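>> received
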Amino acid sequence: MHGATADVVVNLPLHISKFRPYALAGGGGLIFHPTGNSGEFVPGADTQAKGAFLYGGGADYALTHRFSLRAEYRGFVYKDPDFGLQSLKTDTWTHTAQPTAGIVYRF
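>> returned
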């Protein structure tokens, strides 16, 4: 799965010590590309793109004026891919959760 998204980040006015919380929302596209890595490749399965809604939030913990630690959650809501196969067509919506952690450098 590959994705290209854009989102709006809103810094929340709740500055608690060194924590800076934020919320985000946006949209974009997810590209699903079936592979045969695990031996479960289905012949005839096509690459498929789906539009997605993105939401989430997180917080930065300031280490210095320029560097912070970040904990974030992103959720993607999109229609299930069927890879062009009638046997996989469900016509339902699904959700993927993406928790992340990282280091932030502020310019």
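>> The chain has a mean pLDDT of 88.
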